[in-house]
Amino acid sequence: MNTDSLAQAMATGGQAVLLMVVLLIVFGILRGAIRAVKEYERLVIFFIGRFSAVRGPGLTYVLPFLEQAVKIDMRENIIDIPSQTAITKDNASIGIDFLVYYRIINPELSVTKVENVVEATGKIATTTLRAVIGDIVLDDVLSRRDQINDVLRVKLDETTERWGMKITTVEIREIEPPRAILDAMNRQMSAERDRRAEVTRAEGEREAAIARAEGNKQSAILEAEGQQQSQILRAQADKQAQLLRAEGYAAALREIYEQARDVDSKTMALQYLETLEKVGSSPSTKFVLPMELTGLVQNLTGAMGMAAGASLADGESANGSSAAVIEDAQEAVKA
Question: CB count, 10 Å around CB of 310?
Fold first, then answer.
């Protein structure tokens, strides 16, 4: 009875183990059949060796033993092309390494049209680089990186389009010319820097000379303006002085006129005779004919008559005085 119980227990345990194995197998099959595909991934499904569909993203299934799935990353990726030796149009050997940015736009073509799309793209990028560099001289290779990048991108995109790949960007990372060319470039850059230094120094000297000339010009202008202002002020001062002198002369003449207005004709006649006497006192021989001789004689005659009528008692002395005056007048006339 114990033997039967043991056999029964063993049978029960064997069934349990078998059940566990079956459950594990089923779980493994279900786990392989049901897949969660991420947003940036796609599954290329082959049904018994033939392309069937592209599935994803999200939860999808793959029939066990009948379907095979190839996972494709749809994100933008990079192919790092190591340094490649290329010969330029002018037979200069240079080393170039660059980066290729790509993304898969057709998962079916990327799997069915090429065995390894990334490796194939790297190889075609190398050959395309050599072809492009061979048509360009060294100076353009060194100075036109952007143009070379665009040419490489267009040519690679034309080739990889049939593989369901899109080349988004090509970037040359480093260009290594030969040592001799590097030395020549360094000498050229040194000469260019010297030339720029000379040009900068010449421009500085020219600007300094212009500044000095401008300063001298402004100084001369200011000096001329100062002299002009000084002359204007001097002329204005002279004008004011002349006006003051003229006003003084005018005031003096007015004063003389005021004083002379009260002088009678007799006094003027006597002043006239004194003037004639002074003129005739010169040692040189001359004849002076006064313009007012007739009026002078009339004035003298009238004066003598008035003097005679005023003093009869003194007639003799008056006559003597008149005769003396007449004689003086005659002498003055003769002189």
Answer: 9
